[in-house]
Specification:
With about 600 residues, the chain is an all-beta fold. It is about 0% helix and about 55% strand. The strands form six sheets. The chain has a 22-stranded antiparallel barrel. The longest helix is centred in the first third of the chain and has 7 residues. The chain is globular, with a radius of gyration of 27 Å. The relative contact order is 0.09.
Amino acid sequence: MSLNPKPLSIEYNIITKTADDIRRSEVTAIGGMYGYAFGNLQMGRRINEDLSYTFSAQYHYDKQPQLSKFYPEEYKNLEQNLQSGTFNTIFGPQTANVSPYYSQTPLQSYAMHGNVRYKNLSFTLFRNEAINPSTIAQTPDNVVYNRGAFFGHNVTMGNLIFQKNINKWQLTSFLIGSHYWLNPESNFRNVYSGLRPAYKFSNGLMLKAEQLASYTLNSVINFSGGITYEYFNSVPRGHDLEYALSNRKQRAVIIGSIYPLNPAGIEVPIPFIEYSNIGGFLQTQITPIEKLAITLGSRYDVNSRYGASLNPRAGIVFEINKYLNTKLLYGSAFLAPSPLFAFEQFGSFVSFDNGANYVSFFFRLPNPDLKPQTIQTFESSTSFNNGKNFRANFNAFYSISEGLFNYGPDFLNGNRYNGQFLGYPVNFIEVAINSERQFSYGGSLDLEYRWNISNNQRLNTYASVSYVNGKVTSKDNSNQEILINLAGISPWIVKTGFELELSRLTFSPRLIWLNEQYTYAVSQRENGTVRQKISGYALLNLHLNYRVSNYFNVFLQGRNLLDQRYYSLNLGASPETAIQGAAGAEFGNGAPQNPLRLMAGLNVKF
């Protein structure tokens, strides 16, 4: 498990290569069932010895299957709710002005990556945008399945890298900037917004300068180190708003607060957080004998939000023989609370006298004093490679995490708000807290075997088995600390498959199996120390490729080939008893997943 102080950003599947890696430009196009489309372009060129460039782009569109046709029990009230406009929510019947027909915003995304290298200088620009529906995991009684309820995210990043070798020194300088933007039309329509569009507003900026240096003293000792300065500003995703905002200086009105006696509604502040981080690390690698390498190092950070942190690390790598080597590693790290987690806030007011007075039943409000999570990890790894056709790797770990992020009542955690928000009484205020300690352990075994059947026939088989489990502290009904097993995991995961190449045809089936999944809800049995569970699942996927020529391929893909009806974990999964609160609006038996999907595509090099 790896923790770092950087804020979470959108993960995007785009592979970058140098101009020397890209010998020809390449285009891939895929189309498939339920309105699926994907396109990829990759190109690059070395203009001369000093100058080169690369460019790549991806586009993805997925209308998605209407899951009510495949999971009729979970969506049994969908059409009735939309046509009548009355929803039997967890808070009782609510009426909304909705389209009587099912529709949903498609998944859409694009990404572009460009790089220019001149001698020792490299400049990279990356941009991506993703749009996803905001109805995921919630039942049709508690959310409006109409197109237009979505979240749209955009990330733009640029970096400048300069590298220079001077005698025994290797120097690398970085300048990096990134900007995050939430589409101001982003909104959701669920039970907590009165089934009306509730808009969100958020953006963020990061600037970073870093200098790395490595010094080779001799064949035995190598030193490396670096210093980093980072600046952040953030407008974390905040209150549910009556109107979309284009900038944070506009008047923000909390949803549902407009009444005849207060036609302007209740204005809520838009938070703006600025902070910085200065860090440095020093590491040495010692190779006392040819087959033994020892690494010792430490990193020190000073953050203007949460203070200082020291994180040492150590490792030993020993080559037993030319086929077998082993590693022993120790490291400590921290995960800083993101502005979203520390400053997230939402809730609503109600007035029983047309806006003369207001009251609220629930608010989640910021906790600027939230501290980082910390982790210590002990890890071992042993790998075997016969240098021909067989490879095996075994990894095991044990980690201790402190100060895990959670939520708790404000009156038990400093009573920062004293039961009020904006001067109005609130029955229950929840804040983010550091509350838990976690012990986790596990391991994985990876195997790979390659067989060259003939000159143009090859077989590559692989299998991996992973296991993870542990305990986390919690409180029972009498407020006593207890240990309970981890949530949000499937302890056993198996992945296996093979790739059979027969001249021009390549056949690649892949199987993924997960055993029972541990929910976040606690079972009513065994004194509340065991999680509830939902079933695991097995998925069979297939990739079939035919090489028409060295520059042209056609292929077929099948996902969930056995057309399984399976469910994945969501926050509200609770098959024994329904969860109350925010998660109670979600599917109790897990979130339904996609049925069989078939796709076809082509790849062209030019």
